[in-house]
Amino acid sequence: MTAHVITDDAEALETAGRLAAEFRAGASERDSARKLPHAEVERLSASGLLGVTVPADHGGADIRHETLAEVFRLLASGDPSLAQIPQSHFVYVNVLRRQGTPAQREFFFAEVLAGRRFGNAQSEAGTRHVQDIRTRLVPAPDGSFLLSGVKHYSTGALFAHWIPVLARAEDDTLHVAYVPREARGLTVVDDWDGMGQRTTASGTVKLDRVEVPADRVVPHHLTFQGPQLHGAVAQLLHTAIDVGIAAAALAEAAEFVRTRSRPWFESGHESAADDPLLIQRFGELGVQLRAAEALLATAARTVDAAGTPGAGLTEESAAEASIAVAAAKAFAASAAVDIGGALFELAGTRSALDGLNLHRFWRDARTHTLHDPARWKVQHIGRYLLNGTLPPRHGLL
User: Which parts of the sequence belong to the Acyl-CoA dehydrogenase C-terminal domain (predicted)?
Assistant: First the structure.
Protein backbone atom coordinates (compact mmCIF):
# COMPACT_ATOMS: atom_id res chain seq x y z
CA MET A 1 0.00 0.00 0.00
CA THR A 2 1.23 3.50 -0.81
CA ALA A 3 -0.03 6.92 0.22
CA HIS A 4 0.78 10.51 -0.56
CA VAL A 5 3.03 12.11 2.08
CA ILE A 6 1.74 15.48 3.25
CA THR A 7 4.55 17.92 3.94
CA ASP A 8 3.08 20.74 6.04
CA ASP A 9 0.10 22.16 7.94
CA ALA A 10 -1.28 24.08 4.96
CA GLU A 11 -1.42 20.96 2.81
CA ALA A 12 -3.08 19.03 5.61
CA LEU A 13 -5.85 21.64 5.88
CA GLU A 14 -6.36 21.82 2.13
CA THR A 15 -6.61 18.03 1.92
CA ALA A 16 -9.06 17.84 4.83
CA GLY A 17 -11.28 20.51 3.30
CA ARG A 18 -11.35 18.74 -0.04
CA LEU A 19 -12.15 15.35 1.49
CA ALA A 20 -14.83 16.83 3.75
CA ALA A 21 -16.64 18.17 0.68
CA GLU A 22 -16.39 14.78 -1.02
CA PHE A 23 -17.57 12.86 2.04
CA ARG A 24 -20.48 15.26 2.67
CA ALA A 25 -22.09 14.33 -0.63
CA GLY A 26 -22.86 10.75 0.41
CA ALA A 27 -23.00 11.10 4.20
CA SER A 28 -26.78 11.08 4.58
CA GLU A 29 -27.25 8.06 2.33
CA ARG A 30 -24.48 6.11 4.10
CA ASP A 31 -26.06 6.89 7.46
CA SER A 32 -29.59 6.05 6.39
CA ALA A 33 -28.63 2.69 4.86
CA ARG A 34 -25.77 2.04 7.28
CA LYS A 35 -23.46 1.65 4.31
CA LEU A 36 -19.95 1.34 5.72
CA PRO A 37 -17.49 3.80 4.16
CA HIS A 38 -14.81 1.38 2.97
CA ALA A 39 -14.04 3.36 -0.20
CA GLU A 40 -13.99 6.66 1.68
CA VAL A 41 -11.61 5.30 4.31
CA GLU A 42 -9.30 4.14 1.54
CA ARG A 43 -9.34 7.67 0.09
CA LEU A 44 -8.53 9.04 3.53
CA SER A 45 -5.50 6.72 3.73
CA ALA A 46 -4.30 7.50 0.22
CA SER A 47 -4.54 11.25 0.86
CA GLY A 48 -1.75 11.12 3.44
CA LEU A 49 -3.82 12.66 6.25
CA LEU A 50 -3.24 9.65 8.51
CA GLY A 51 0.51 10.33 8.51
CA VAL A 52 0.51 14.02 9.41
CA THR A 53 1.59 13.54 13.05
CA VAL A 54 4.57 11.33 12.23
CA PRO A 55 7.71 13.14 13.48
CA ALA A 56 9.75 15.04 10.93
CA ASP A 57 12.83 12.92 11.56
CA HIS A 58 10.80 9.92 10.38
CA GLY A 59 9.57 11.71 7.24
CA GLY A 60 6.26 13.10 8.51
CA ALA A 61 4.82 16.62 8.55
CA ASP A 62 4.53 16.64 12.38
CA ILE A 63 1.72 19.20 12.20
CA ARG A 64 0.57 21.34 15.10
CA HIS A 65 -2.31 20.18 17.29
CA GLU A 66 -4.22 23.28 16.26
CA THR A 67 -4.03 22.06 12.67
CA LEU A 68 -4.95 18.50 13.62
CA ALA A 69 -8.01 19.72 15.50
CA GLU A 70 -9.09 21.73 12.46
CA VAL A 71 -8.58 18.67 10.24
CA PHE A 72 -10.98 16.71 12.45
CA ARG A 73 -13.46 19.60 12.62
CA LEU A 74 -13.52 19.82 8.84
CA LEU A 75 -13.93 16.07 8.37
CA ALA A 76 -16.73 15.94 10.96
CA SER A 77 -18.56 18.77 9.22
CA GLY A 78 -18.66 16.49 6.18
CA ASP A 79 -19.33 13.13 7.84
CA PRO A 80 -19.06 12.71 11.63
CA SER A 81 -18.76 8.93 11.43
CA LEU A 82 -15.86 9.14 9.01
CA ALA A 83 -14.16 11.68 11.25
CA GLN A 84 -14.42 9.42 14.28
CA ILE A 85 -12.92 6.39 12.56
CA PRO A 86 -9.29 7.71 12.59
CA GLN A 87 -9.48 9.29 16.08
CA SER A 88 -7.90 6.25 17.73
CA HIS A 89 -5.37 6.03 14.91
CA PHE A 90 -3.83 9.33 15.99
CA VAL A 91 -4.04 8.40 19.68
CA TYR A 92 -1.99 5.27 19.11
CA VAL A 93 0.51 7.02 16.88
CA ASN A 94 0.97 9.28 19.91
CA VAL A 95 1.55 6.28 22.18
CA LEU A 96 4.41 5.18 19.94
CA ARG A 97 5.88 8.68 19.92
CA ARG A 98 6.03 8.70 23.70
CA GLN A 99 6.74 5.09 24.69
CA GLY A 100 7.84 3.20 21.59
CA THR A 101 11.42 2.02 21.22
CA PRO A 102 13.48 3.46 18.32
CA ALA A 103 12.92 0.24 16.39
CA GLN A 104 9.16 0.30 17.04
CA ARG A 105 8.90 3.91 15.96
CA GLU A 106 10.90 3.28 12.80
CA PHE A 107 8.73 0.32 11.80
CA PHE A 108 5.30 1.71 12.66
CA PHE A 109 5.87 5.25 11.44
CA ALA A 110 6.84 3.79 8.06
CA GLU A 111 3.59 1.81 8.12
CA VAL A 112 1.59 4.93 8.88
CA LEU A 113 3.26 6.97 6.14
CA ALA A 114 2.43 4.17 3.72
CA GLY A 115 -1.27 4.68 4.54
CA ARG A 116 -1.82 1.81 6.95
CA ARG A 117 -4.43 2.39 9.61
CA PHE A 118 -4.56 1.81 13.37
CA GLY A 119 -7.93 0.89 14.88
CA ASN A 120 -8.54 0.34 18.56
CA ALA A 121 -9.54 -2.35 21.00
CA GLN A 122 -9.63 -0.72 24.39
CA SER A 123 -13.07 -0.49 26.03
CA GLU A 124 -14.70 -3.48 27.69
CA ALA A 125 -18.34 -4.02 28.60
CA GLY A 126 -19.64 -5.54 31.81
CA THR A 127 -16.66 -4.47 33.95
CA ARG A 128 -16.80 -2.24 37.03
CA HIS A 129 -15.83 0.91 35.12
CA VAL A 130 -14.04 2.06 31.98
CA GLN A 131 -10.55 1.56 33.41
CA ASP A 132 -11.24 -1.97 34.64
CA ILE A 133 -9.30 -3.66 31.83
CA ARG A 134 -9.42 -7.46 32.02
CA THR A 135 -7.79 -8.38 28.72
CA ARG A 136 -4.47 -10.08 29.54
CA LEU A 137 -1.00 -10.44 28.06
CA VAL A 138 0.35 -13.77 29.21
CA PRO A 139 4.08 -14.48 28.67
CA ALA A 140 4.95 -17.43 26.41
CA PRO A 141 8.13 -19.52 26.82
CA ASP A 142 9.75 -17.99 23.71
CA GLY A 143 9.46 -14.41 25.06
CA SER A 144 6.34 -13.51 23.12
CA PHE A 145 2.86 -13.07 24.59
CA LEU A 146 -0.59 -14.59 24.29
CA LEU A 147 -3.42 -12.05 24.25
CA SER A 148 -6.97 -12.94 25.29
CA GLY A 149 -10.06 -10.82 25.95
CA VAL A 150 -13.17 -9.20 24.46
CA LYS A 151 -13.38 -5.53 23.51
CA HIS A 152 -16.38 -3.36 22.68
CA TYR A 153 -16.86 0.06 21.02
CA SER A 154 -13.82 -0.74 18.86
CA THR A 155 -14.09 2.18 16.43
CA GLY A 156 -11.82 1.77 13.44
CA ALA A 157 -10.99 -1.89 14.03
CA LEU A 158 -13.03 -3.14 11.09
CA PHE A 159 -11.11 -0.84 8.73
CA ALA A 160 -7.69 -1.26 10.34
CA HIS A 161 -4.43 -2.85 9.26
CA TRP A 162 -3.20 -2.84 12.86
CA ILE A 163 -5.38 -3.04 15.96
CA PRO A 164 -3.80 -1.57 19.13
CA VAL A 165 -5.15 -3.59 22.06
CA LEU A 166 -5.18 -2.24 25.61
CA ALA A 167 -4.24 -5.07 27.99
CA ARG A 168 -2.71 -5.75 31.37
CA ALA A 169 0.44 -7.73 31.99
CA GLU A 170 0.94 -10.23 34.80
CA ASP A 171 1.93 -7.43 37.16
CA ASP A 172 -1.30 -5.57 36.25
CA THR A 173 0.51 -2.76 34.41
CA LEU A 174 -1.14 -1.37 31.29
CA HIS A 175 0.32 -2.10 27.86
CA VAL A 176 -0.66 -1.63 24.22
CA ALA A 177 -0.20 -4.60 21.90
CA TYR A 178 -0.16 -3.72 18.19
CA VAL A 179 -1.80 -6.70 16.48
CA PRO A 180 -2.22 -7.26 12.72
CA ARG A 181 -5.86 -7.25 11.65
CA GLU A 182 -5.45 -10.72 10.12
CA ALA A 183 -3.79 -12.30 13.20
CA ARG A 184 -4.93 -15.80 14.05
CA GLY A 185 -7.32 -15.77 16.99
CA LEU A 186 -8.46 -12.17 16.38
CA THR A 187 -12.04 -11.62 15.22
CA VAL A 188 -13.72 -8.30 14.46
CA VAL A 189 -17.52 -8.44 14.70
CA ASP A 190 -19.57 -5.75 12.98
CA ASP A 191 -22.29 -5.56 15.64
CA TRP A 192 -22.44 -1.82 16.32
CA ASP A 193 -26.09 -0.70 16.25
CA GLY A 194 -25.95 2.77 17.81
CA MET A 195 -28.66 5.26 16.89
CA GLY A 196 -25.96 7.71 15.78
CA GLN A 197 -22.43 7.53 14.38
CA ARG A 198 -23.92 4.57 12.57
CA THR A 199 -21.10 3.92 10.09
CA THR A 200 -18.16 3.98 12.49
CA ALA A 201 -18.46 0.17 12.77
CA SER A 202 -17.65 0.47 16.48
CA GLY A 203 -18.24 -3.20 17.13
CA THR A 204 -16.60 -6.04 19.05
CA VAL A 205 -13.06 -7.41 18.91
CA LYS A 206 -12.51 -10.94 20.23
CA LEU A 207 -9.01 -12.13 21.10
CA ASP A 208 -8.41 -15.82 21.71
CA ARG A 209 -4.78 -16.56 22.62
CA VAL A 210 -3.48 -14.23 19.91
CA GLU A 211 0.30 -14.51 19.56
CA VAL A 212 2.06 -11.15 19.95
CA PRO A 213 5.85 -10.75 19.55
CA ALA A 214 7.52 -8.82 22.35
CA ASP A 215 8.57 -6.05 19.97
CA ARG A 216 4.91 -5.28 19.22
CA VAL A 217 4.12 -4.42 22.86
CA VAL A 218 4.46 -0.89 24.30
CA PRO A 219 4.45 -0.07 28.07
CA HIS A 220 1.54 2.38 28.12
CA HIS A 221 1.47 2.63 31.93
CA LEU A 222 4.65 4.70 31.75
CA THR A 223 2.68 7.41 29.92
CA PHE A 224 0.87 8.33 33.13
CA GLN A 225 3.83 8.39 35.52
CA GLY A 226 4.68 12.01 34.71
CA PRO A 227 3.19 15.05 33.02
CA GLN A 228 1.52 14.00 29.80
CA LEU A 229 -0.66 15.29 26.98
CA HIS A 230 -2.04 11.89 25.99
CA GLY A 231 -5.52 12.54 27.35
CA ALA A 232 -5.62 16.16 26.24
CA VAL A 233 -4.81 15.27 22.63
CA ALA A 234 -7.33 12.41 22.52
CA GLN A 235 -10.07 14.62 23.97
CA LEU A 236 -9.14 17.50 21.68
CA LEU A 237 -9.99 15.34 18.67
CA HIS A 238 -13.32 14.31 20.19
CA THR A 239 -14.04 18.00 20.79
CA ALA A 240 -13.30 18.82 17.17
CA ILE A 241 -15.78 16.16 16.05
CA ASP A 242 -18.52 17.71 18.22
CA VAL A 243 -17.78 21.19 16.86
CA GLY A 244 -17.89 19.84 13.31
CA ILE A 245 -21.29 18.25 13.92
CA ALA A 246 -22.63 21.52 15.35
CA ALA A 247 -21.38 23.51 12.35
CA ALA A 248 -22.89 21.06 9.87
CA ALA A 249 -26.25 21.04 11.66
CA LEU A 250 -26.48 24.84 11.71
CA ALA A 251 -25.49 25.10 8.04
CA GLU A 252 -28.11 22.50 7.10
CA ALA A 253 -30.77 24.33 9.11
CA ALA A 254 -29.95 27.61 7.39
CA GLU A 255 -30.13 26.04 3.94
CA PHE A 256 -33.45 24.38 4.74
CA VAL A 257 -35.01 27.58 6.05
CA ARG A 258 -33.79 29.57 3.03
CA THR A 259 -35.05 27.09 0.45
CA ARG A 260 -37.84 24.95 1.91
CA SER A 261 -39.41 26.32 5.08
CA ARG A 262 -42.69 28.27 4.93
CA PRO A 263 -42.94 31.49 6.94
CA TRP A 264 -45.24 31.51 9.94
CA PHE A 265 -48.35 33.44 8.92
CA GLU A 266 -48.08 35.91 11.82
CA SER A 267 -44.61 37.06 10.77
CA GLY A 268 -45.94 39.09 7.87
CA HIS A 269 -43.05 37.98 5.64
CA GLU A 270 -43.05 36.09 2.37
CA SER A 271 -39.89 34.16 3.25
CA ALA A 272 -39.11 32.20 6.41
CA ALA A 273 -35.57 33.57 6.20
CA ASP A 274 -36.96 37.06 6.90
CA ASP A 275 -38.83 36.06 10.07
CA PRO A 276 -37.27 38.16 12.86
CA LEU A 277 -37.85 35.44 15.45
CA LEU A 278 -36.00 32.89 13.31
CA ILE A 279 -33.24 35.41 12.66
CA GLN A 280 -32.88 35.93 16.42
CA ARG A 281 -32.65 32.19 17.06
CA PHE A 282 -30.08 31.67 14.32
CA GLY A 283 -28.05 34.48 15.83
CA GLU A 284 -28.13 32.88 19.27
CA LEU A 285 -27.04 29.52 17.90
CA GLY A 286 -24.37 31.20 15.79
CA VAL A 287 -22.90 32.73 18.94
CA GLN A 288 -22.91 29.31 20.59
CA LEU A 289 -21.14 27.76 17.59
CA ARG A 290 -18.53 30.52 17.42
CA ALA A 291 -17.83 30.09 21.12
CA ALA A 292 -17.33 26.36 20.62
CA GLU A 293 -14.97 26.98 17.70
CA ALA A 294 -13.01 29.56 19.73
CA LEU A 295 -12.69 27.24 22.73
CA LEU A 296 -11.49 24.45 20.44
CA ALA A 297 -8.82 26.67 18.88
CA THR A 298 -7.71 27.99 22.28
CA ALA A 299 -7.46 24.47 23.69
CA ALA A 300 -5.42 23.30 20.70
CA ARG A 301 -3.02 26.22 21.02
CA THR A 302 -2.65 25.49 24.74
CA VAL A 303 -1.74 21.89 23.95
CA ASP A 304 0.77 23.10 21.36
CA ALA A 305 2.32 25.53 23.84
CA ALA A 306 2.65 22.84 26.51
CA GLY A 307 4.31 20.45 24.08
CA THR A 308 6.66 22.93 22.42
CA PRO A 309 10.03 21.21 21.88
CA GLY A 310 12.60 22.50 24.32
CA ALA A 311 10.01 24.04 26.65
CA GLY A 312 9.86 20.97 28.87
CA LEU A 313 6.40 19.68 29.75
CA THR A 314 5.60 20.39 33.41
CA GLU A 315 2.78 19.40 35.75
CA GLU A 316 1.45 22.94 35.43
CA SER A 317 1.61 23.20 31.64
CA ALA A 318 0.07 19.74 31.24
CA ALA A 319 -2.71 20.74 33.66
CA GLU A 320 -3.39 23.95 31.71
CA ALA A 321 -3.71 21.93 28.53
CA SER A 322 -6.05 19.37 30.10
CA ILE A 323 -8.26 22.06 31.63
CA ALA A 324 -8.43 24.03 28.37
CA VAL A 325 -9.46 20.89 26.48
CA ALA A 326 -11.97 19.92 29.19
CA ALA A 327 -13.63 23.34 28.93
CA ALA A 328 -13.79 23.10 25.15
CA LYS A 329 -15.15 19.55 25.25
CA ALA A 330 -17.85 20.30 27.82
CA PHE A 331 -19.07 23.32 25.85
CA ALA A 332 -18.84 21.65 22.45
CA ALA A 333 -20.81 18.62 23.62
CA SER A 334 -23.66 20.85 24.72
CA ALA A 335 -23.50 22.98 21.57
CA ALA A 336 -23.62 19.96 19.25
CA VAL A 337 -26.66 18.45 20.97
CA ASP A 338 -28.43 21.83 21.28
CA ILE A 339 -27.91 22.85 17.67
CA GLY A 340 -28.74 19.37 16.35
CA GLY A 341 -32.05 19.56 18.19
CA ALA A 342 -32.74 23.22 17.36
CA LEU A 343 -32.58 22.38 13.65
CA PHE A 344 -36.18 21.11 13.84
CA GLU A 345 -37.40 24.11 15.80
CA LEU A 346 -35.93 26.37 13.12
CA ALA A 347 -36.85 24.42 9.99
CA GLY A 348 -40.38 23.43 10.96
CA THR A 349 -42.58 20.36 10.71
CA ARG A 350 -41.38 19.13 7.34
CA SER A 351 -37.80 18.80 8.64
CA ALA A 352 -38.94 15.89 10.84
CA LEU A 353 -39.73 13.69 7.85
CA ASP A 354 -37.67 10.54 8.21
CA GLY A 355 -36.76 10.46 4.52
CA LEU A 356 -34.88 13.76 4.82
CA ASN A 357 -32.66 12.25 7.52
CA LEU A 358 -32.02 15.62 9.14
CA HIS A 359 -32.15 13.91 12.53
CA ARG A 360 -28.73 12.40 11.79
CA PHE A 361 -27.02 15.49 13.22
CA TRP A 362 -28.75 15.20 16.59
CA ARG A 363 -28.30 11.40 16.61
CA ASP A 364 -24.59 11.74 15.85
CA ALA A 365 -24.11 14.46 18.46
CA ARG A 366 -26.09 12.65 21.15
CA THR A 367 -24.22 9.39 20.52
CA HIS A 368 -20.71 10.82 20.22
CA THR A 369 -21.02 13.05 23.30
CA LEU A 370 -21.73 9.98 25.44
CA HIS A 371 -18.08 8.96 25.02
CA ASP A 372 -17.19 10.36 28.46
CA PRO A 373 -19.31 12.54 30.77
CA ALA A 374 -18.89 16.31 30.52
CA ARG A 375 -20.06 16.69 34.12
CA TRP A 376 -16.77 15.25 35.37
CA LYS A 377 -14.80 17.64 33.19
CA VAL A 378 -16.68 20.53 34.77
CA GLN A 379 -15.83 19.14 38.21
CA HIS A 380 -12.13 19.11 37.41
CA ILE A 381 -12.31 22.62 35.99
CA GLY A 382 -13.98 23.84 39.19
CA ARG A 383 -11.44 22.15 41.46
CA TYR A 384 -8.58 23.59 39.45
CA LEU A 385 -9.97 27.13 39.54
CA LEU A 386 -11.09 27.12 43.16
CA ASN A 387 -8.40 25.09 44.91
CA GLY A 388 -5.59 24.75 42.40
CA THR A 389 -6.14 20.99 42.26
CA LEU A 390 -4.31 19.55 39.25
CA PRO A 391 -6.46 17.32 37.05
CA PRO A 392 -5.83 13.55 37.14
CA ARG A 393 -3.54 11.76 34.66
CA HIS A 394 -5.96 8.97 33.75
CA GLY A 395 -5.97 9.79 30.04
CA LEU A 396 -9.58 10.95 29.69
CA LEU A 397 -8.92 14.62 30.39
Answer: 237-372
